[in-house]
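Backbones bend. We report:
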Amino acid sequence: MGNIPVDDWGVRISFALGMLVAALAFPAVASADDAIIVKRVPGLDRAERAAVRDDADVAFDGTLALPNTEVVTARPGEVDEALDALNDNPDVIYAEPDVQVAPGSNDPQFVNQWGLSNVGQTVWTAGTPDADIDGPEAWATTRGAGATVAVVDTGVETTHPDLAGQWTGNPGERGGGKETNGVDDDHNGFVDDWQGWDFVNNDNTQESEGNFHGTHVSGTVAALADNGIGVAGVAPQAKVLPVKIFGAPNTTASSSVIGQAFDYAGTLGVDVVNASLGGLGTSQYITDVMNAHPNTLYVVSAGNSTDDAALYMPCNSSAPNLVCVASNDNQEHRSDFSNVSATAVDLFAPGSFIVSTTINGTYGYANGTSMAAPHVSGAAALLAADEPAATAAQLKAALLGSVDVKPAYSGLALTGGRLNAARALAALEASVTPTPTATPSPTATATPIPTATATPTPTATATPTPTATATPTPIPTATPTPIPTATPTPTATATPTPIPTATPGPAPTPAPVPTPTPGPTAPPAPTPDPPVAPTPPVATPTPAPTAGPPTPAPALVKTLKITGAVTSKQPAKVSYTLSADAHVTYVIRCTGAKACASTSLAKVSRRAKSGNGSFALTRKQGGKNLAAGKYTLTLSAGASSRSAAFTVK
């Protein structure tokens, strides 16, 4: 990033609220009544133009600035028939619904949130369209209501206007005056933890201590949407449980404190824990804590040292309910500061020039895998809200099995792909949809022969070995001075920078390029150990059950192909190959920039046999005709899915 300092876990560029830009518009689901836009072939005279309208039984409404283009009106309830007639007319190039446009979010900075919706806008550099997580597409299914993400990080600014009402805590300490009665009402060892816990000061306060990091992460997860200010979170209706383990800038946290924080959140039963932190070394203790809470998904950052992420904890943990996230930029490239690993990193997510909430009620940009992780945590919250009964294993499988695979990430992450929240939702829904099973005929059941089962040997809980202390992402200084302050790693200095404009024009000059500093040497924490609350006992991993019959391999969608275009008279052919019998689901979504984007998603489920199969893809989906435009069909079986594009004419 040129002259922008980067520490081991991120950097911030701050700016004050007040420099507003226009909101990015997305087509809404409602169309303008019965209006249709028609593009004619050139050269038609007045009589020929009238004949086109008469053949489709539509009335002229007005001429548009684009040559040979006009608006016509169909009879009430006959828009689909009129569209079919117009598109079948050789004198018509295309006809499409006249769609009303509404913003995907009315938050002024949404236009700069390329990670949610990348239309090629310039945020320091011109972006690559669709190099994003499909945030607005996912919001058509859920915005995260009912899900909770614990943010294990610095303190947070609980009074930030874009996070008002988004905080939560221990339900056993909420209501009836329990918040301030000075009693551990639910006997979990923490007094009045109604809004999380501060493991630095061993109390229930959440002061930021001048450190913006936790507030920035929280905003990426769950900042309010459509409230007319600031930004929108990935899961704007989810709640955030703040768990503080870092104090003022330049402080660190030990593995034991991180483990206590992980255990605290897991014991409260939160759906997702976001931990944008890490350090060189390993920690069996932290792994044991995560193993003790198998139904909580722990999302961590890969690190910012342009290094092998397998060297950093907790990214290198073997816990099955862990997801490690690397960072990509808005041009679909690995962020040049990001750690990577074909075995330790699971997927990529947006982490370069991410705008979010910061302290003092402001907003700022930051760079780091710390910014990438909360995109995944927010997406996991969407999944948990959509399917509350889903396990952490199912959430992880859906997130990893639905990535947008890109050549730039090949060999750099286990999946070789970048997060796609909308596809992850479709994959999860397909995996948890119950498959009807035939009632078996009564058969004689043989009495099983008792077999000896070996008593599992108790596993010793490893005493935490002093390892590298973890450092948070950007540690800000609250000064507006534009001169970077030289601070020892792993802190980040804040450099005030103007907000990039929302237009796809040239990037601000100079265009900073992320420049990482050397990786952390992992010195012991320089500050005295803070007092800690009584540590709940850490359960050792549950012994594996005795082996039973082998589990059948999950079905995989091996191939998917769509032949031909869909018209009112001719369907396209969908051909696919499955590795096993499965309950498959296909979801259709629009990828065009015109009126088809207003079409609601169509979703169809069916049973399918292993091997090759096919079906006809007609224009009528979900009870109504698809508008002319470009679409994507995603076919899912379990956590496996493939997508193919097709056109409706």
Remarks:
- Residues 267 and 293 are 7 Å apart (CA to CA).
